[in-house]
Amino acid sequence: MIEARTSDIAELGQQLRVDAVRASARAGSGHPTSSMSAADLMAGLLAGHLHYDFEHPHLPGNDRLVFSKGHASPLLYAMLHAAGAIDEEHLLTYRKLGSDLEGHPTPRLPWVDVATGSLGQGLPIGVGMALGARLSGSPARIWVLCGDGEIAEGSMWEAFAAAADFGLGNLCAIVDVNRLGQTGPTRYEWDTGAYAAQIGGFGWHTIEIDGHDPAEIDQAYAEAEHQDTPTVILAKTRKGRGVAAAEDKEGLHGKPLDESEKAVVELGGVREARVRVNPPRSSEPRRSQPSRPVARPTFSVGGKAATRDGFGAALEALGDANPDVVVLDGEVADSTRTAAFRKAFPNRFFECYIAEQQMIGAAVGLQTQGWIPYASTFAAFLTRAHDFLRMAAIGGADLRVVGSHAGVSIGADGPSQMGLEDLAMFRALWRSVVLYPCDANQCAHLTATMADLPGISYLRTTRAETPVIYRGDELFPVGGSRTLAGSAHDRAVIVAAGITVSESLSAAERLADEGIPVRVIDAYSIKPLDAATIRQAAADTGRVLTVEDHWPVGGLGDAVLEAVAGQIPDVRFHKLAVRGMPGSAGPAEQLAAAGIDAAAIVRATQRLVA
């Protein structure tokens, strides 16, 4: 049984290298050389400083290990083998169809909390994990294995800044400085001092070591465990360590070793040692308080209110009802209306500043700790975090994302502030829900509903005030819609959402005066769409008009078209959307210029029924 002695750590490092080489060779692909450089680092962590119960991976007292350099997955799987979590047969299924040992780690494995592999994400997520552990009162530590190449990612520097600002002494980044990236040397090669100067400038405790010296590795981990600030261990290593034909050689990234059997012999042969991993730092269950029904705010029918106001008021009520709800914002809390939550529950509000990737990364990390995160900023700026959202979907994360100031209706701020591609972006995510309320009461209900939704849910809110048309006690199920106008004699159906619902109702009144009865559907749930209701309306009228404050690609119009196309014969379809680049103007002027106001809807409907 391997324990935390330097001789044992060296031996375990060789075993991890051998298993990484074997798994990659059997698969015919993988990243063994990237695994070999970090093998001693992970041997020292596994045998001496990681506190983890592999039979109960979700215990709150377990440390968390994130492989930000997810391409080194053979090393992670070799660690699982050494810990007795998987057997030899399982290890050698690496990268095979149906295996949970994927090319880059995902939570298909119970010991993996988040999907990694898109570089620069593990540390921002680790920040969220460390926040979540501290908020829970857990003594668990968060360890993140990073590659030196990914230090070039801007998201890493967002994480360095955030971790220091939050004072996360329970977070340790382990940087495998092996000098080589995919196509050649990294920016600073083996100059760990250059990394230390920059990261230390953010307020991190920095340690520079020989990443192949077991004693230095062990001492560095012990030092990290006694810091009040986040620690980075900058470990100088050699890619392909232990195999002369591969060590510090370019051109071998992402390739199994040639003559892998000879490499195994050179590394000392196959071992079957098992590691005695330290038990969790605490066996206490996560402290939880029961939630209560949400006392949703209500807005008076006939009045006007912005949906962002409905969101903010409902979020505060939700925070009072459910102590597991946490909120993150990108330094626009007064605009997104999360400021009310911040004032009421300051310990559960996290200011992420203008760092949207870090904001979403932290939300991903927080939800691994049992928290229910809502992350909010302007819809336009969520595009910066799209890769984090994509990876969160791959990892099965449960997130609630709210984008305010969507569409041209924000007015004079101009196109840089207008979210016009957000619906398409979120609809494209796996297992996502996309909601676009038209009034404050509807928004308040959907805000509360999101707390219980799995996967990634997106709520689009509006800056401008809109008419309150629904009562405060009405319910809006995900996947539903509301038919707001209609008769047996309708000649067309207008499908709208959000800001265009009231415009469509105004258009319907004008059209009725002209003897053109139309049906108006509020498709507040864009994904999943209430396809059955829309198909029936299309069959009844033979004409469908969609209208949205969004680019014409990927939004409401395309969702409706997908539902109708090939299902209802002889349907005439037209889509109103923002087709020209907006400038600065007032909200009403913007809607008119974009051709999505009531007058434009009347004209389009007249043409459709002609």
From TrEMBL:
This is Transketolase. Transmembrane segments: none annotated. GO terms for molecular function: magnesium ion binding; thiamine pyrophosphate binding; transketolase activity. Its cofactor is thiamine diphosphate; Mn(2+); Ca(2+); Mg(2+). Residues 274-303 are annotated as: Disordered. Belongs to the transketolase family. The keyword Calcium applies. It is an enzyme of class 2 (transferase). Keywords: Calcium, Magnesium, Metal-binding, Thiamine pyrophosphate, Transferase. NCBIfam families: PRK05899.2-5 (NF004559). Homodimer. Pfam families: Transket_pyr, Transketolase_C, Transketolase_N. Residues 305-468 form the Transketolase-like pyrimidine-binding domain. GO terms for cellular component: cytoplasm. Its EC number is 2.2.1.1. InterPro entries: THDP-binding (IPR029061), Transketo_C/PFOR_II (IPR009014), Transketolase-like (IPR051424), Transketolase-like_Pyr-bd (IPR005475), Transketolase_BS (IPR020826), Transketolase_C (IPR033248), Transketolase_N (IPR005474). It comes from the Bacteria. Gene3D superfamilies: 3.40.50.920, 3.40.50.970.
